[in-house]
């Protein structure tokens, strides 16, 4: 058993007869009244995100988890196949267990969170950023750069990302996996 002071991003807890992963939290100490923790929880079974507030000192039932490195092999409809990089065992996960499946290319190394009690995979954590090649985008219009203008671009995984006007087809770009946003162009 843990309490609200142990809450951190990525912690898996048992709540309302399901297992949730904490994706955001904020400790709030108002001027009047008791402190509380505002959280955003994502169900590892359904992928549904809920908001919840815990009062300070509230006991939470944390789930013991292990993390393992897995390599993304391929997707088949709504299922994604991964291989453990240590013992080469393969697992299949539903699309709901992934945070940003559209940014994952074959061969990507991800961290899979596994429940220690029953060895069931709970969720997949992407690396902080990925480098993908732009496959389709409109050419930028010269003289259109007075503001931070962006245009949509399709990357090699099929995802659409807003990029600055100077990005062209064939450029490699770094994308933040948490927000799904362009970070920078990669020079070869």
TrEMBL record:
Compartment(s) where it occurs, according to its Swiss-Prot or TrEMBL record: Cytoplasm
SMART domains named in the record: EFP, Elong-fact-P_C
Residue span(s) of domain Elongation factor P C-terminal: 130-185
Domain of life where this protein originates: Bacteria
Keywords noted in UniProt: Cytoplasm, Elongation factor, Protein biosynthesis
Primary site of residence: cytoplasm
Pathway this chain belongs to: Protein biosynthesis; polypeptide chain elongation
Keyword check for Nucleotide-binding: no
GO CC annotations, alphabetized: cytosol
Protein biosynthesis keyword on record: yes
InterPro entries: Elong-fact-P_C, NA-bd_OB-fold, Rib_uL2_dom2, Transl_elong_fac_P/YeiP, Transl_elong_KOW-like, Transl_elong_P/YeiP_cen, Transl_elong_P/YeiP_CS, Transl_elongation_fac_P
UniProt feature coiled coil, ranges: none
Family, similarity comment: Belongs to the elongation factor P family.
NCBIfam families linked to this entry: efp, PRK00529.1
Entries under PANTHER family matching the protein: ELONGATION FACTOR P, ELONGATION FACTOR P (EF-P) FAMILY PROTEIN
Function: Involved in peptide bond synthesis. Stimulates efficient translation and peptide-bond synthesis on native or reconstituted 70S ribosomes in vitro. Probably functions indirectly by altering the affinity of the ribosome for aminoacyl-tRNA, thus increasing their reactivity as acceptors for peptidyl transferase.
Protein name listed in UniProt: Elongation factor P
Organism: Constantimarinum furrinae
